[in-house]
Amino acid sequence: MKIAFHGAARTVTGSKHLLTLKNGKKILLDCGLFQGMGKDTDPLNRSWGFDPAEVDVLVLSHAHIDHSGLIPRLVHDGFSGRIFCTDATAELARLLLEDSAEIQENDVKAHNKSSKAQGKPLLQPLYTLDDARASFDRFTERPYGEWFPILEDVECLFTDAGHILGSACVHLRIKEGARTYRLTFSGDLGRYRDVILRSPAPFDQADCIILESTYGNSLHDNVHSTVDQLLHWIEHTCFQKRGKLIMPAFSLGRTQELLFAFNQLELENRLPPVPYFLDSPLSTSITEVIKKYPGYFNRNIQKVMQQDDDPFQFKGLKYIRSVEESKELNYFDQPCVILSASGMAEAGRVKHHISNNIENSHNTILMTGYCEPNSLGGRLMAGEKEVGIYGIRHEVHAEIGSIRSMSAHGDYEDLSQWLSGQDPRGVQKLFLVHGEYNVQEAFKQRLVSKGFQDVVVPDQHYEIGL
Q1: Which end of the chain is more exposed for a tag (fewer CB within 10 A), N or C?
Q2: What is the pLDDT of residues 398-442, one digit of tens each?
Q3: CA–CA separation, 148 vs 10, rounded Å?
Q4: Backbone φ and ψ of 2, nearest 5°
C-alpha cells in the first residue's frame, strides 16, 4: 500500500492523508480545511492532489474544521462513500460545516460586490450551505472501543483522543495477502490532565503511526492555573484599565473550557462582577450539544456536576445571538468581557470586535490558543504594531496577552506518554504531521533518542510505499 500526505504536512491545518491499497481502494484520513495561510489559503483549499471521486471511504478523527472542513467540497467533487466517525463528532461536524458554508457564502458575496463594481473577476465559495447539507447523510457513527469493517479486509477502531468531545485516534487493520498491517492515526491528541475530558486512551502495537506534533518541542505552562490567569486579566483590564477584555476562542473546545473556568471562579466566589458576553451563535449551539454527552467528561467535571448541574453557566453571562445585538456591543461603554469566535481571529464576529477595540489602550485582546503565524491572531502575538483588518490599517494600542496553559493539544510529554505503550522496534514508520517544520524536526530527534528508528516529516503531497 501507499500513503500520501495532502494536508497538515509541515503545517498545522488542512489534515488529509490518503491510503491507497494494493487492490486500488482508497481510504482518506480526515478532510480538513487549510486556515490562516495568508494568500496561499484559498489555492490550497481548491487543490486536492488526488481525485475525490476515487476515494472509497473517509475516516474522520474529529469535528474541528481543520480536520473536517472540506468534506462538503469532497462530496461536491465526486466522493460517494461513507464517512466514519463517533456520534459526537457527527453531531458537532454538522454544526461546524453549516457555519463554515454560511461564512464562505457571505464572504464571497461581500467580495464580489466590490469586485463587480471594479470590473474584477468574481469568486465562487469553496462550497455552499446546500453542499454542506448534502454531505450529512454520508456520516456513519461508530462507538469507541469496537472494531468495525470499513472495506473488505479493512477494519477500524476508535479510541478516545481526549482532544475535544468525540475526538478519536484511528486504528486500522489492513489485510493484504497473508499479512495484516496495523496503522494508527493520532488525529489531534489531548492532554492527560484535561479540565473537562478523559485522557487519551492506550492502544495496541502499531506497525505505522501518523502522529500530530503541534507542540512537539514545548511543555505547557502548568505553574499558574487557567482560572488564576483569567482572574488576573479580568481584574487588570476591567478594573485597573477600565477597558474591554476581548477573547478570541474556537467555538468547539476552547469556548467550553473558558466557560467552565469562569464557572469555577463563581463557585469559589472569586468571579469579578462585570458583564460577560458570549458572542457566537455557533459556540452557544455547540455548548448545548456538549451538555448532551456527560459520559465523555472526566471524573473531575462529573464531580462538579453533582453540585452544579450546568458547569458552563455562571452569573453575569449573556448569550449574544443576533447580528444587531453583536453590533450593539460596539457602543457598550462599560468594562466587560467578550468571548467570541474564531480562535485565530481570522473570521467571525471576534474580528469585528478586534477592529473596533484594537486602537484603545484601555482594552486587552487575550489570545487563548494556537494561532497560525500568518493569521491575525498570530500577527498580534508576534508584536506587530499595525495590522490590516477588512482592508483598513489599524495601529495596535490595545494590550495583547495570551494564556498558554489552555491548549487542547498535548505537549511533548503528553505525546510521549501516548507512545509509551509501543515497542519502538516494532514501529516500522512514524510520520509527524500537523506541526510547524522546525517543531517537527526537534520532536523527531527526541523520538529517535527514544528508539524510534524511522521518523519521517512529510512535505505536502509526499507519497511513500509502506
Answers
A1: C
A2: 999 998 777 788 999 999 999 999 999 999 999 999 999 999 999
A3: 31
A4: -130, 155
